[in-house]
């Protein structure tokens, strides 16, 4: 068949190059692996197959494949309710809408991606900041709002910090004690093996209300063909089922099957390749930017660097944008206290290595020029 | 390539048959036409192409193709802002979230799909009912809330009623006079040529704040590969751009290009086939159910029948479900006064003719049995 195309495809590709290097958003934009390309080549067959199957069967099969491929076996048990969403943001927005109806206060980790805060704040929620370090260790007494909601992210973005099983036990127990709903956004889980202990087995040991978000949107360069899975315990006081049914019937069965096939590919080497690619891009980035990494132990598909004194992230962000390099300034991640992020810039590693190197070189050249001016 | 499949595909297909005939939801479940099948066969090529293009270019191209294919040429002008959404519900939910922030009262048409009401009500909005007949004719003085929002649907679901150009002029003028934001959900527009006058040209003639939803989700059997387009006037007081950017970057470029290709196919005969199929299914339904159609002039892909006295829609809905026919009871559409819908059932026509006939025959047999009991 002839697929109609705009006349100006070459112009546009040139424009994309002129526009520069996008290392800002965390959406995966690297090339497909050969086995992933084979799945894409089979799209028409997948479409024909999923047409014939009941949606709930396709949905459950995809979720089971994805969650078990990242170690979350207990998520498949009867005590867990789930829904497939267009995206993790759709799931988080439903949680925010439900929290407003339940009239609960929220404590949210800081730093984290400002979008998470903004999605909830748009519902008019009262949101209190909890430092990631407070969640990572020490007493939880003053951290968890009684009869409220604790919203955490693990692995966290941009820090890559993972709540380990021991700490999750403590947090879950503290939330259960205080009638606090524990929400965990685990969208980056597949990128970090340390996050792949069976989290749902821990949560299930407490008389706890909880909700989690699992996501494929950060993993595979599928042009936003993705699904977010919203999971919660039976009996959860947030009206999540209702928020969901008001909004959608299910994610696309076609997309769900693609998710399943990519998860199976992940299990058979795809996740290792994904993590290897991220690690190798991280090394390239750190080799090409003469700055200290802010989070040396991070394994997720972004990396963050600490700027020299006198350079403000938001100003640098603007200057870099003018020369065609798109990064994110650290202020965005400190959603309550932006000044704490003013010496940080974040770059995305979910790119082909060439893009990472080119972008980092331009950042470094720009900073070198700045250093020469300052030193002179 | 080998696409892995569950073992029990035949079992599942049997189960789907045993489960009965789904004439309830309005999601399109008919077969693809041959030219539509060709587009699906080209999915891998489409994926390869859209990968290379800037997302905003793909997005704009898809929207231009879709909106101009259904007569909305002025929607492409500079005074109109737009965003591509996962679905029309996603767009409507953003509108609801924005209305809450803007603290405006809402007047919403009744009857209409209860989902629209529920999506907004979940934000805690104050929603007042406006009878469709009041919007269709007569004075608008008491109908439009000053400094509020008027939420209408045209073509409306389930009635199929279309606000014509003359009436839209009156409604737009009245909203402009009262500083009321006019929201129009036009998700069924492509199914009814009477709704394809250039609505944006009318809206643009008034000093009016407005937002519209255009949607592909009701049109093509693409397993929820779809996009909703949220459009609004520059200067609109609802913070729609912010609600959007909190939630998403864009719809999938892959899906957007599929939308464009289906719109082009629509322009070259696909829409005529779509409307012809709906019309022919409507005739089949009316031939096979011995009930009066509630909305004789409707052109959209659902049809509604008036039940004999003594039959309650919600009870019939339950009984039909037990014998494997899934319809929707009219109470759902009268979101403020459910009793007004108690003598109505709605069936979907976006199915293959066999499903419509089978479902309608079962409904009719069930009602015949009821009549015999009553008459005896």
From TrEMBL, chains A, B:
Classification via Gene3D superfamilies: Aspartate Aminotransferase, domain 1 (3.90.1150.10), Type I PLP-dependent aspartate aminotransferase-like (Major domain) (3.40.640.10)
Alphabetical list of CDD domains matching this protein: AAT_like
One GO MF term: transaminase activity
Pfam families: Aminotran_1_2
Keyword terms, alphabetized: Aminotransferase, Transferase
Domain of life: Bacteria
Transmembrane segments annotated in the record for this chain: none
Coiled-coil features, chain-numbered ranges: none
Alphabetized InterPro entries for the sequence: Aminotransferase_I/II_large, PyrdxlP-dep_Trfase, PyrdxlP-dep_Trfase_major, PyrdxlP-dep_Trfase_small
Ranges for domain Aminotransferase class I/classII large: 80-362
Protein name: Aminotransferase class I/II-fold pyridoxal phosphate-dependent enzyme
Source organism per UniProt: Nocardia colli
Lineage: Bacteria, Bacillati, Actinomycetota, Actinomycetes, Mycobacteriales
């Amino acid at each position: 068949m002839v697929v109609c195309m705009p006349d100006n495809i070459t112009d546009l590709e040139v424009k994309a190059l002129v526009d520069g290097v996008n290392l800002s958003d965390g959406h995966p934009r690297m090339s497909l692996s050969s086995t992933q390309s084979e799945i894409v080549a089979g799209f028409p067959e997948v479409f024909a197959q999923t047409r014939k199957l009941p949606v709930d069967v396709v949905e459950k099969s995809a979720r089971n494949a994805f969650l078990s491929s990242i170690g979350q076996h207990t998520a498949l048990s009867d005590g867990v309710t789930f829904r497939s969403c267009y995206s993790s943001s759709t799931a988080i927005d439903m949680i925010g809408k439900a929290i407003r109806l339940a009239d609960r206060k929220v404590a949210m980790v800081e730093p984290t991606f400002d979008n998470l805060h903004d999605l909830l704040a748009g519902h008019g929620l009262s949101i209190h900041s909890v430092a990631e370090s407070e969640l990572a260790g020490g007493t939880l007494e003053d951290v968890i709002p009684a009869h409220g909601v604790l919203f955490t992210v693990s692995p966290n973005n941009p820090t890559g910090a993972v709540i380990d099983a021991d700490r999750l036990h403590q947090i879950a127990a503290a939330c259960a004690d205080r009638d606090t709903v524990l929400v965990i956004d685990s969208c980056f889980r597949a990128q970090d093996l340390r996050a792949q202990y069976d989290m749902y087995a821990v949560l299930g040991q407490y008389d706890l209300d909880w909700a989690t978000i699992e996501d494929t949107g950060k993993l595979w360069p599928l042009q936003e063909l993705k699904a977010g899975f919203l999971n919660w315990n039976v009996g959860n006081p947030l009206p999540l089922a209702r928020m969901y049914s008001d909004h959608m019937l299910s994610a696309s069965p076609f997309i769900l099957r693609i998710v399943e096939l990519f998860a199976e590919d992940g299990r058979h080497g795809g996740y290792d390749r994904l993590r290897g690619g991220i690690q190798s891009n991280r090394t390239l980035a750190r080799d090409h930017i003469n700055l200290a990494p802010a989070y040396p132990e991070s394994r997720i598909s972004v990396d963050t660097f600490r700027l020299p004194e006198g350079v403000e992230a938001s100003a640098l962000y603007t200057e870099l944008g003018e020369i065609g390099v798109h990064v994110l300034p650290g202020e965005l991640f400190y959603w309550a206290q932006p000044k704490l992020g003013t010496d940080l810039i974040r770059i995305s590693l979910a790119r082909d290595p060439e893009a990472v190197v080119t972008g980092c070189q331009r950042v470094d050249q720009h900073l070198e020029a700045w250093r020469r001016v300052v030193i002179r």
